[in-house]
Amino acid sequence: MQRILVPLIFGLAGVAVLVWLGVWQMDRLAWKQGVLADIEARIAADPVALPDTPDPTQDRYLPVQVTGSLDAAAPLRVLVSQKQVGAGYRLISALETGQGRVLLDRGFIPVADDVPPVPGGPVTVIGNVHWPDDRNDSTPENDVSGNTWFARDIDQMAQVLNTRPLLVVARSLSPAEQGVTPLPLDSSGIPNDHLEYAITWFSLAAIWATMTGFFLWRNRRPTSQADS
User: Fold this and answer.
1) 3-state secondary structure string, 102-137?
2) CA dihedral 73, 74, 76, 78 (to 10 degrees)
3) Which among 25, 14, 171, 9 has a CA at the least distance from the CA of 104?
4) Is the pLDDT score of 120 beyond 60?
5) CA-CA distance, 93 to 78, in Å (whole number)?
6) Is the C-alpha dihedral spanning 35, 40, 45, 48 positive or negative?
7) Cβ(201)–Cβ(161) under 8 Å?
8) Residue 26 class from Cβ within 10 Å (0-12 exposed, 13-18 middle, 19+ buried)?
9) Which of 141, 75, 62 has its CA nearest to residue 109?
10) How far is residue 98's CA from residue 117's CA, in Å, rounded to a whole number?
11) Percent of the chain having pLDDT more than 90?
12) Is residue 228 predicted with pLDDT exceeding 60?
């Protein structure tokens, strides 16, 4: 009896722990979906004036409308890839506003295209204030001298373009800029792997239960054969 009871208790405990982990990940999934819905609603809200001193926590994703003139200097090129388009660059320019110079993410051009000239005259930008986190352990260092950037490092870009360390990601420019496609903010780049984690834990629970059942069945076989 003991040779069955001990592995049975061990097996049930393992299944219970794995199922609990799966349920916990489902709870986290519901929480994360709520967070993402709040972010999407915030991004798409009516734009407001650019704050004088935006806060990286409170004002992240804040929709703003700002008017100014783009610096004629060559924009910084951030290497990115777009589905169904391929490799290209985000163009980051300095925008002169009544509240000083800020960084403007104008949008995307394919890597084979020439960088279009900066529009002259005033432009009105509707976009979102952002402090992007593009860099991870495998991201190369930015090639500043060659003007090929692999991450939007705000402080470094602000130093190169002589702006405030503040980035506005354009949703639209008026007048519209030819040859540049805005890449507005959305929540697609925010990780949400909780469903995959939950499936993993539930799958492990099923495997653990199957292995426990098989182990108990094998342990009972000699007794059953002896009784027959």
Assistant:
1) EEEEEEEEECCCCCCCCCCCEEEEEEEEECCCCCCC
2) 160
3) 171
4) yes
5) 11
6) positive
7) no
8) middle
9) 75
10) 23
11) 52
12) no
